[in-house]
Amino acid sequence: MPSTSTDGKVLILTPVKDAAHHAETYLRGIRRLTYPHDLVSLGVLESDSRDATYQTFDRLLAEASNEFRRTGLWKKDFGYRMPADVPRYSAPLQVGRRTTLAKSRNHLLFRALEDEDWVLWLDADVIEYPPDILERLLAAGKDIVQPNCVYQYGGHSFDLNAWRDHGSRHMHDLREEGDVVLLDSVGGTMLLVRADVHRDGLVFPCFPYGKGNPKIRRDNYWLGEIETEGLGIMADDIGVQCWGMPRLEIKHHPS
Fold it and tell me: How much helix, strand and coil, in percent to the nearest 5, is found in the chain?
């Protein structure tokens, strides 16, 4: 899809934790963006790190401050730690982990959003994407849209929080449908949201949300969805459709 759209001020938001080793790659990718940098602002919230995440992002954002419209770094600890030697995607820990992540996203949104037209949620461990990614996402013309985050181009999706049909189909299942496809739920590795939709009340639920909504996962019907998946269901409840671009791929760090 060609790069055709430059449409307003964009705020890139990233919650981080123990992410010092990703910081250089993260800023390098943003600095490579072809979208006009005088229309781009950056906001980062650091929480509960045990490494030099805050100090590293503080230095890098200061170095980039003259290049972008504005930059901001905030700190908010939630007191949540994963047990040692347990993978962060361990199923029994997901509610606690994602509750905290939802809170961090909301804190960052409320602190950082000013007069921007768009919010781009970008995880610090996304390591590669096209420099014209913003233009391509904006060209889709949707209020909520995301690319397909993968480990390897052409492979299965990394971000399995983006789904349709009660969680049975993910972005890698939808490539044959076209460049832009309907989603019921979204992930947060990279997610573009029209800022006014956030201003209208769309947030990341820090509790199971959506009981009774017919689009939630069938095995989750009495619990609802949380964090980015909850945002997707909440968007449906307020009449905003979520979309994905399964052929527009970005790469996640392999760990």
Answer: 30, 25, 45
